[in-house]
Specification:
238 residues, alpha/beta, Rossmann fold, seven-stranded parallel β-sheet, 7 helices, binds NADP nicotinamide-adenine-dinucleotide phosphate
């Protein structure tokens, strides 16, 4: 059987990098992107880094053309690139709002729009959007980020309803606190306060997210669509 192609936005660090390496070692063809030129330290021929800003439709179109030529259009799209620009709402600048929405939400639109047609043609696809528990429970200082991530949950459900009949599943993964650059600003005191609210009493690792995404990509998960699955050590429970 042909190796599946995976596209991961935001793969130079953190969760995206962990997924890229994990999936390449599991014998998928993996394309990982970031705004800057970067390399994967592993020398795997099925792991390709590409410079691409998800907010730039020109970048996205150029990338599509390159992948089409290389026969690497994705069967599985992981919309992972995300940023924060935290600030209390009254102090939040227009740029803080625009940058976060453009990256986290519109970036997901840009990539999904361009890659979906080929999945429909192939009658197979997996789209996994990396959201956040901040989009489910809110977080002070993150009106922009929470809005972008909550929107991804709606995006996921609506698209899942549109493309389910084409054998394409669309799901969201909503991490809690994961040890990456994104959470490295949290000092020990604040960390201890957060830990009190996490039943498993620890931050997650990027590998925890990779394993869940790996499952959602698999045939075992072929009847799961339109869902937002939290992975947060029990921080959020309904
Ligand atoms: N860490 C957590 O606790 C946590 C919790 C909940 C949800 N999440 C979500 O999980 C995802 C990954 O987070 P992370 O913790 O791994 O973050 P990270 O370590 O800060 O990595 C973010 C990645 O996204 C890339 N990126 C940012 N803006 C981009 C753009 N416009 N175009 C292309 N790539 C871009 C970055 O590369 P460049 O900077 O080189 O472009 C980097 O590779 C994000 O969507 C985040 O919101 C994380």
């Amino acid at each position: 059987m042909k190796k599946r192609n995976i596209f991961i936005s935001g793969a130079s660090r953190g969760i995206g990098k962990s997924m890229a390496k994990h999936f390449a070692k599991s014998n998928f063809n993996v394309v990982g992107t970031s705004r800057n030129n970067f390399k994967f330290d592993d020398d795997l021929e099925n792991l390709l880094p590409i410079k691409l800003d998800v907010t730039s439709r020109n970048d996205v179109k150029d990338c599509f053309d390159e992948l089409k030529t290389k026969n690497l259009l994705p069967d599985i799209l992981i919309n992972n690139a995300g940023i924060t620009a935290d600030q209390l709402f009254l102090r939040m600048s227009d740029d803080d709002w625009d940058n976060v929405i453009n990256t986290n939400l519109t970036g997901t639109f840009n990539l999904t729009k361009i890659f979906l047609k080929n999945m429909i043609k192939n009658k197979f696809g997996r789209i996994i959007n990396i959201s956040s528990i901040s989009g489910l429970m809110g977080n002070p200082g993150q009106v922009n980020y929470s809005s972008s991530k909550a929107a991804l949950n709606g995006f996921t459900k609506s698209l899942a309803k549109e493309v389910g009949s084409r054998n394409i599943t669309v799901n969201c993964v909503a991490p809690g606190f994961i040890d990456t650059d994104m959470t490295s600003y949290i000092g020990q005191k604040e960390r201890n306060e957060i830990l009190k609210k996490i039943p498993l009493n620890k931050f997650g690792s990027p590998e925890d997210i990779s394993k869940l995404v790996m499952f959602l990509m698999s045939d075992e998960a072929s009847y799961i669509t339109g869902q937002t699955i939290s992975i947060d050590g029990g921080l959020l429970m309904y």
